[in-house]
Amino acid sequence: MKHSKKRKNKPIDDTNLEMATSTGMKEEKRTASPTSSSNTSVPNEEHPCSYQHSSKCSNTMPAYISFLPTLGDFNKFPLEIFEIILEYLSVKDISMMSMVSKIIRDRIVNYISTPSGNRRFFPQDFHNENQSDSAESSILEHYSSLGLLFKRCTLLLPTKERLKYINRMFSEISCFQFYGCFDPLHCLGLHCYGVFLQTLTAGWDEDECQRVYNFLCDVTNLPRRIQRIVSSKPGRFRKLELRIRSFCRDVLLNHWIHQSDSVFWLTCILKPWPMVNQARLLYLIFGPASVHDGNVNWWNMIQGPTEENNLKELADTVKLLYETEKDEWMAIDVVGLVDELAVLPEEWHLENSARFLIMCGNNICFPFMASKAVDGQAIELARLVVFQTLVCEKDLYCMGWTVKMMQKVCNVFTTENEKNIFLQSIENTFAQIIMDSLQLVISGEHDEEETSFLNLFHLVNAQANFHKEILYLTMNYNV
Questions:
Q1: What are the two backbone dihedrals, phi and then psi, of residue 296, each rounded to the nearest 5 degrees?
Q2: Domain count along the chain
Q3: Where are the beta strands (DSSP E) in 73-132?
């Protein structure tokens, strides 16, 4: 999160406009927001000495120059003509024009509130199923430019007043409200809100962004809604879960360019809650969901092995929290989150737990397994290692990784007896799950995809490749 100096609130007049304009331009240079077109210029009064080269002109400024109208040539136009001219300018050009003077800025703000300005600045074609990708990108770009316009129009206002003004404009758009849209799964409204917010707050310091989050919580009752979810059984309030997921992803999390910004907003969502609720929220926001109705699939990790793409967003988010330099997320906190996730809403299928740890990477996988070793959970660890070999075989990861991880975990045990129990349990687990899979095949309980037979095939190959890597390591043989 980039930092900027806090602005003092000063009376809005033309006396301090030059300084405000300079401050605004510096703020925008720190953002990735679109810049205004170089073809747009503001008409100026012609300098009275532009065709004379007397010494007086070089040393003094005629007194009446300071009293020229701040509207320049636009002072000759009625308000209606001025608004017609605005209709021919792009949103980016209007946002640049709003920084010329207080009077022009006020006229632009008034124009935004008119019916014609409202139609111009707030298109609401959010549910067009036949909309092309280019048209969708165009409307997102429009709301990004609109964020820049509001950023400049409210430049001298306190953060709270800026947000109140924006909320007054947005409160009339139903798809921007928490419960306003009838079909949030297929709506572009919250995406537009998100890109608007990203442009508006880019370059603001964390204190100001925290005020933005608090304001959004106030107008949406987000904490109270989250409290209702985390205190109920998963899946009981499916519609509310979908609304929270959509709002957090589309408005607060999905549009940031820098990872530090994503971590900041995610921290705002998670940190007010205990760790068990943080894990619940992580799964709610980033866990697998139905492609048909968007509802969170709470039982996906429990009923049987799941695909990699159902775990990717969860694993990427956990890695992001671990890699951040923020004090709020220590390594032990992230490992604790992983531990809570693996039993949500009940204990995950071991293959899913193994796949999730592998996708989280060494920095998270080893501390997680080491904590189990310290607690004396040798048998549980042995089963996890066996399923890690199965995942490496199925998903084509390097089997040598599992062997090295087993070595590191083995060294955590403090006694030889614990190490022996751990190693023996690995072999016993291999034998047990292979026999269980063989029994399913022999019993004739086949499905259309021959899942039981394929699982047995992968298990036998996993065991063989695992022991092969151990032999290579024992003989100091480099493949």
A1: -70, 130
A2: 1
A3: none
Token pair in block for residue 446: 């086949």
338 within some domain: no
Q: How far is CA 201 from CA 35, 138, 214, 252, 359, in A?
A: 15, 21, 14, 11, 32
Residue 152 lies in a domain: no
In a domain, 363, yes or no: no
* Token pair for 471: 């032999």
Taking Cα atoms as reference points, which of 328, 315, 324 lies closest to residue 355? 315
Give me the residue label for tokens 């009293």: 67
pTM over 0.85: no
In the Cβ-directed half-sphere of 244, how many Cα atoms lie within 13 Å? Answer: 28
Residue 98 CA to residue 107 CA, distance in Å, equals: 9
As to burial, measured by CB atoms within 10 angstroms (0-12 exposed, 13-18 middle, 19+ buried), residue 341 is: buried
Bridge partners of 289, per DSSP, are 296
Q: Residue 318: count other Cβ atoms within 10 Å of its Cβ.
A: 23
Separation between Cα atoms, residue 384 and residue 355, nearest integer Å: 10
- Tell me: the pLDDT tens digits for 403-417? 999 999 999 998 899
Find the domain containing 454 and state its range.
380-478
For the CA atoms of 109, 111, 117, 122, what is the dihedral angle to 10 degrees? 0
**pLDDT by residue (tens digit) across 215-265?**
999 999 999 999 999 999 999 999 999 999 999 999 999 999 889 999 999
Is residue 85 assigned to a domain? Answer: no
**Can you tell me which residue has the tokens 């810049």?**
35
Spatial contact of 455 and 437, defined as CB atoms under 8 Å apart: yes
Q: 311 phi and psi, to 5 degrees?
A: -110, -10
b/e per residue 15-30 (b: at least 16 CB within 10 A): eebeebbebbeebbee
Alpha-carbon torsion 114, 115, 120, 124, what sign? positive
How far apart, in whole angstroms, are the C-alpha atoms of residue 169 and residue 261?
25
User: Cα(451)–Cα(457) distance, rounded to whole angstroms?
Assistant: 10
- Please tell me what DSSP assigns to residue 289: B
Whether 117 contacts 28, CB under 8 Å: no
Partners of residue 296 on adjacent β-strands: 289
Query: For the chain, how long is the longest CA-to-CA vector?
Result: 107
Report which of 368, 459, 451 is spatially closest to residue 409, judged by C-alpha positions: 368
| Structural tokens at position 124 | 């609401």
- The dihedral sign for the CA sequence 325, 328, 332, 338: negative
- Alpha carbon 304 to its chain's center: 29
Q: Name the H helices within 159-221.
A: 159-170, 189-201, 206-220
- Output the six-digit token pair for 22: 């300079």
Distance CA(296)–CA(159), nearest Å, equals 35
Please report which confidence band the pLDDT of residue 56 belongs to, taking 50, 70 and 90 as the band edges. Answer: very low
Contact 184, 242 (CB under 8 A): yes
The radius of gyration of the chain's CA atoms, rounded to the nearest angstrom, is: 30
